[in-house]
Every structure is written in structure tokens, then in C-alpha cells.
């Protein structure tokens, strides 16, 4: 760890953790990140398509 910028590695690590968690959440819940124009009849109430 270089002493020139101590916040650099912390910010990089937090960005990596946040992106990893968001990627797992989007893959696991299969979220719709865009507003759907045609509303499906099955998934009208909940926005999540569960894997199990």
C-alpha cells in the first residue's frame, strides 16, 4: 500500500464490493432495470422472477 493516497484502495475496494453485490442481485433476482412497456399478466404484482 503506497502512502501517497490512502483513500484510493479503500474506494476501489468499496466500488468492487458494491458492483459485485449489485451484479449478484441482478442475476439472482433477474430484475427489470427498465420500465416494461407491455405488462405481463404473470409478473404484474411482483417485479422479481424467483429462481427457486
Automatic annotation (TrEMBL):
Membrane topology: Single-pass membrane protein
Keyword check for Ligase: no
Residues that span the membrane, as ranges: 12-31
Family that this chain belongs to: Belongs to the ATPase protein 8 family.
Keyword Ion transport: yes
Key words, A-Z: CF(0), Hydrogen ion transport, Ion transport, Membrane, Mitochondrion, Transmembrane, Transmembrane helix, Transport
Subunit structure: F-type ATPases have 2 components, CF(1) - the catalytic core - and CF(0) - the membrane proton channel.
Cellular component, GO annotation: mitochondrial membrane; proton-transporting ATP synthase complex
The organism of origin for this protein: Enoplops potanini
UniProt-recorded name of the protein: ATP synthase complex subunit 8
A Pfam family this chain is assigned to: ATP-synt_8
Subcellular compartments: Mitochondrion membrane
GO terms, biological process: proton motive force-driven ATP synthesis
GO molecular-function terms, A-Z: proton transmembrane transporter activity
Amino acid at each position: 500500500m503506497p502512502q501517497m493516497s490512502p483513500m484510493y484502495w479503500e474506494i476501489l475496494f468499496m466500488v468492487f464490493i458494491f458492483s459485485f453485490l449489485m451484479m449478484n442481485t441482478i442475476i439472482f433476482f433477474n430484475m427489470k432495470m427498465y420500465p416494461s412497456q407491455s405488462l405481463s399478466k404473470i409478473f404484474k404484482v411482483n417485479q422479481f422472477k424467483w429462481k427457486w
